Amino acid sequence: MIKAILIFNNHGKPRLSKFYQPYSEDTQQQIIRETFHLVSKRDENVCNFLEGGLLIGGSDNKLIYRHYATLYFVFCVDSSESELGILDLIQVFVETLDKCFENVCELDLIFHVDKVHNILAEMVMGGMVLETNMNEIVTQIDAQNKLEKSEPPVMEVHLQKSTLLERKRFLHL
Amino acid sequence: MEAVNLLSSNRYTEKQIGYLFISVLVNSNSELIRLINNAIKNDLASRNPTFMGLALHCIANVGSREMAEAFAGEIPKILVAGDTMDSVKQSAALCLLRLYRTSPDLVPMGDWTSRVVHLLNDQHLGVVTAATSLITTLAQKNPEEFKTSVSLAVSRLSRIVTSASTDLQDYTYYFVPAPWLSVKLLRLLQCYPPPEDPAVRGRLTECLETILNKAQEPPKSKKVQHSNAKNAVLFEAISLIIHHDSEPNLLVRACNQLGQFLQHRETNLRYLALESMCTLASSEFSHEAVKTHIETVINALKTERDVSVRQRAVDLLYAMCDRSNAQQIVAEMLSYLETADYSIREEIVLKVAILAEKYAVDYTWYVDTILNLIRIAGDYVSEEVWYRVIQIVINRDDVQGYAAKTVFEALQAPACHENLVKVGGYILGEFGNLIAGDPRSSPLIQFNLLHSKFHLCSVPTRALLLSTYIKFVNLFPEVKTTIQDVLRSDSQLKNADVELQQRAVEYLRLSTVASTDILATVLEEMPPFPERESSILAKLKKKKGPNTVTDLEEAKRERSADVNGGPEPAPASAASTPSPSADLLGLGAAPPAPAGPPPSSGGLLVDVFSDSPSAVAPLAPGSEDNFARFVCKNNGVLFENQLLQIGLKSEFRQNLGRMFIFYGNKTSTQFLNFTPTLICSDDLQTNLSLQTKPVDPTVDGGAQVQQIVNIECVCDFTEAPVLNIQFRYGGTFQNVSVKLPITLNKFFQPTEMASQDFFQRWKQLSSPQQEVQNIFKAKHPMDTEITKAKIIGFGSALLEDVDPNPANFVGAGIIHTKTTQIGCLLRLEPNLQAQMYRLTLRTSKETVSQRLCELLSEQF
Fold first, then answer.
1. How much is the pLDDT for A74?
2. Which of A132, A138, B54, B107 would bridge B180 by S-S if both were Cys, CB 3.0 to 4.6 A apart?
3. Is the Cβ–Cβ distance between B786 and B633 less than 8 Å?
4. pLDDT digit string (tens) for B374-420?
5. Using one digit for the tens of pLDDT, what is the confidence trace for B561-613?
6. Searching chain A, which residue's CA lies closest to the CA of residue B173?
7. What is the pTM of this model?
8. Are residues B784 and B850 in the same domain?
């Protein structure tokens, strides 16, 4: 099963963390730090799998990650998952984000963290892969959005995307 | 609290935010759970698919025990209800899986299980994927209940694999049809042995072949996602092939495919190929094929930039090692060790040490290797490694002189590792005399050499060296005064460390007061260590978990035991003639055992010492083969799997016998409720009496327990008793049955007689019931010496110069039973051209002739 899904940027700032096993707040932070430490020191074009990560699982555990421009997507899984399968799943996740946000970038993850969680929830549930079909996921998300719009808004919050932060696409398809 | 209020809102947005908050921020032990549960319950009952979906997600994400208690009964109903929406079914399946993982005891098995299996046929592939995940986990725990899923999974898989890539529409991912589902289905199939139904089996083989074929096709897209998805399926197919381990053809193809990947430019594929090959190497069919890639793997070790890949390469080298390539592999690993990453050095050291020991033909090589190991990576050499080298040197006379010379030379280096000083100190203390004849390594020089290191070492090493010195006093009287001076010096006698001080005082005293004789006795050479499992192997197992040191390796170790000095226990009594054929028989493919239906129906079974009549496992596979091997020998390994090894040692005299059964726990975990039971059919019970005592019900990890069976042959018999072993390992119940090789011929006493006597008796036994003849094809090469050995091993005397035709074999003996003694004559006529034998047995009793003929026929 998938133990945790982490997204952080090149500087180790977590952008999304989702744990499918209960860990205390402190441990979660440590796991993110450890994972970043492990993943970030690896060269490009080495393999996308690595063992280790003492905090989650130990020897049965693998980190499967992909690096897109400024972001690392890391899935911590145990031996019951297919490595290449998970690698593809990361790709599907990113492509789905791209479809939902139209040219997704790091800022989208910051400002729409709820949506990202919803999309992830459509794909992975309790550590198991729920849906891998991109169209299906997008349909579900669209349906949710429609529902959301049909109801009167609770409160209006206008978030100005800062122009100081570079808007950099991290997906090159 | 606010979030919980949001849950009960009817507005989607609010409800969603509420759930999101809970699944992200609430951990499973919160007190709010009760309130949350209530809200979830309402939503589950709402029949609004979106709300149900949200509720199920929340259960799955929190997955606490309280939630399992509240909903474990509910969710299966939702899952199999006819009117549930697909997306809800999907969520329900995974939700149930999550609850099953956290608290398996709370999820009731029931009618729904069979309906879940049928979800594999569902129209909606998303539902199938989710259901497959669920079934895979459930099937691991309850294989029986989900057996029907195998054929469904195979047919589903074959539909996916053979479909044109556009058929599945949305589930085609970069031109690969439903890769995730294929992977899941292949995983599910790995929970089961190869399907028994030939049709299903054929279909599965076809699927696997198609998958392998597809790998050869040119890619339909240049995108890395396409090849990823394709290879994900391929790797899963290969691991299924390895798991089944039954189709040599597929195994070799898989191996070739992996070989191609080893040189692929994609690092991920190289990594996975190395990993899969590691498991492939442990299959007997493909071990040889894997070995052909050794150069590539060594190359990977040297040139690969990625430490994860190099680590896999080391693992694979370790797995593919056998006697033919051990020297090369060990040399490569040693040279890699010099540049290896610090994180994996210790593991490599252990592996080198194990391989060097396991496959050492020449022990000088072994000693060289280990000393090299200490030189290169002294810091990573654990205590176990150098203990082991000393054990081996002490147990093997032929290597002692060489070892002494080598360590002496190694110690000449100006800076040597402390571990080397330890090994050197110990070995020179024991065997320094063997090289003392050479003026370059005279006693004084040896002593000075060791003492020059003394001050640089830690306390335990110094203590060891002090013992070496006192041993020198005994070995070389000429350096006695020098050593006494050293012991007497203030730095020793007044050393701050109590242990060192005590040793110095005691040794000094001992060397002054004791006479030469007493010294010689006290300081005698160390006795050989008892053979035991290598402590290094135990350490590696502990490090890597019990499953990595695979079955095959154990088997290999077994085979190499003779060479490595594990003395085969010699047969003790005269009745069991030492059988030179035992090894040959053990190595060659064993012939199928004589017919004779094993007692299987419950009514016939008699439990000897357990009151509860529990179910008895069917005979373990290979048990018949093993049984046949024991017809002509008395000692050896009767049964072995990943957990348990059963060894036998037996002796027979006249109509009595005694069998020692050794149960070895190969794991590091205790066996509980360990109960071996001997089972005889009613018939057998009257003819053969067996007596034994129950053994201790717990067997510690790595330990061996012994059980003695006293045997009395009352009258001649044909069947063999069955040994049933039941125990708990971890949480699982294990049940193993093997046929115990107590056969009629064990009660043979050889009789020598002259040609004249033989033919006179042969004629006396001429009535048709007394003679049994069998003509059969040779199953083994027809070698005269082996045949002779087998006849002797069978128990009868081999009579030379009796038969006019020197090619024939003639034997005679008496079967002892409590009631009678039965004289037996046998004659074996080989026909080399036709590769046939004719075996004739004449005894005074028909059943005996029959049984002996059956038993012996199987041996050639």
1. 92
2. A132
3. no
4. 877 777 777 777 788 888 888 777 788 888 888 888 888 777 788 88
5. 333 333 333 333 333 333 333 333 333 333 333 333 333 333 333 333 333 33
6. A133
7. 0.60
8. yes
Mean pLDDT of chain B: 78
Considering the domain architecture, whether residues B340 and B312 belong to the same structural domain is answered as no
Any domain includes B79: no
> Residue B726 is inside which H or E element, if any?
strand B722-729
**Residue B170 touches chain A, beta carbons under 8 Å:** yes
Say whether both B394 and B505 belong to one domain. Answer: yes
Query: Whole-angstrom Cα distance, residue B857 to residue B100?
Result: 54
- Count how many residues are written for chain B: 860
Facing A133 at nearest CB: one of B61, B171, B544:
B171
Neighbour-count burial for B253-286, b at 16+ CB within 10 Å, e otherwise: bbbebbbebbeeebbbbbbbbbbbbbbbbbbebb
Q: Is the pLDDT of residue B33 over 80?
A: no
Point out the domain boundary residue: B683, B710, B742: B742
Q: Are residues B480 and B362 in the same domain?
A: yes
Amino acid code (one letter) for B80: V
Q: How many CB pairs under 8 A join A and B?
A: 149
Q: Hey, which residues 82-101 in chain B have their CB within 8 Å of chain A? A: 87, 90-91, 94-95, 97-98, 101
Does residue B784 sit in the same domain as residue B838?
Answer: yes
Q: What is the ipTM of this complex?
A: 0.81
Q: Answer whether residue B319 shows pLDDT above 50.
A: yes
The whole-angstrom separation of Cα B821 and Cα B690 is 20
Residues of A in contact with B129 (CB under 8 A): 129, 131-132
Q: What is the pLDDT of residues B274-315, one digit of tens each?
A: 888 888 887 777 777 778 888 888 888 888 777 778 888 888
Q: Which residue has tokens 């939702």? A: B78
In sequence order, the β-bridge partners of residue A67 are A72
pLDDT band at B820 (very low <50, low <70, confident <90, very high): confident
Please report, for the domain that includes residue B669, its CATH number. 2.60.40.1230
Quick one: closest CA in B to A83, which residue? Answer: B232
Token code pair at residue B189: 């199939």
Q: Quick check: B50 and A89 CB within 8 A? A: no
Q: Which residue of A has its CA nearest to B231?
A: A84
Q: What is the pLDDT of residue B614?
A: 43
Radius of gyration of chain A (CA): 16
Q: Which of B150-182 are b and which e, b meaning 16 or more Cβ less than 10 Å from the residue's Cβ?
A: bbbbbbbbbebbeeeeeebeebbbbebbbbbbb
Q: Are residues B469 and B392 part of one domain?
A: yes
Chain A residue with minimal CA distance to B172?
A: A133
Tell me whether residue B778 is exposed, middle or buried, using C-beta atoms within 10 angstroms of its C-beta: 0 to 12, 13 to 18, 19 or more: middle
Kindly report the nearest CA distance between residue A104 and chain B, in angstroms: 19
DSSP, residue by residue, B661-692 = EEEEE-SSS-EEEEEEEEE--HHHHHHEEEEE
